[in-house]
Design a protein that fits this description.
This protein is of the alpha+beta class and 140 residues long. It folds into two domains: 4-55, no CATH class; 74-127, no CATH class. The chain has two helices and six strands; from the N terminus they run ββαββββα. The protein has helices at 22-40, 115-127, and strands at residues 4-6, 12-14, 43-48, 51-55, 74-76, 106-108. The strands form three sheets. Strands 1-2 form a two-stranded antiparallel sheet. Strands 3-4 form a two-stranded antiparallel sheet. Strands 5-6 form a two-stranded antiparallel ribbon. GO terms for molecular function: ADP-ribose diphosphatase activity; NAD binding; NADH pyrophosphatase activity. This is Nudix hydrolase domain-containing protein. Residues 70-140 form the Nudix hydrolase domain.
Length: 140
């Protein structure tokens, strides 16, 4: 079992005092999870590189805890000036670098960021051009 202490909410906190290889860690984690689930009714919620989240909903109420985020939202910005010229860019990094491909400015919406603000930010980051958001052309 992994060493754990109970937190103020009846959960457990595991603090690794030293690193261990995955061949040693996986069986310990599996055994610990099984025991914690039996003891407290925990269920797996999600994991990040530096932690694992287990949850246990309060008794006699409906579990309304939302699932962990499972996707990212990306934007592509169609920017046109008064001369009806469209703003395009070439990648400085990645697999499209140095191949002569022109594309719309693109990027990823940050957690909690509105899509229209992400579009304005990404255009500014990639081109230095100040833009005004008008509308969403497509959403998929």
């Amino acid at each position: 079992m992994l060493k754990a202490v109970e937190d103020v909410h009846g959960g457990v906190i595991v603090e690794m005092e030293e690193s261990m290889d995955s061949d040693s860690f996986v069986p310990l984690l599996r055994d610990s999870l099984s025991k914690w689930r039996l003891m407290e009714g925990f269920r797996y919620h999600h994991a990040e590189p530096d932690y694992l989240m287990l949850v246990h909903w309060l008794p006699r109420t409906t579990d309304t805890l939302p699932a962990n985020a499972s996707h990212r939202v990306g934007i592509g910005a169609f920017v046109m000036n008064d001369k009806k010229e469209v703003l395009v860019v070439q990648e400085k990094y990645g697999k499209f670098k140095d191949i002569g491909l022109w594309k719309l400015p693109t990027g990823v919406v940050n957690e909690g960021e509105d899509i229209h603000l992400a579009a304005i930010r990404e255009v500014k980051e990639e081109t230095g051009v100040e833009t005004e958001f008008v509308e969403i052309l497509a959403f998929r």
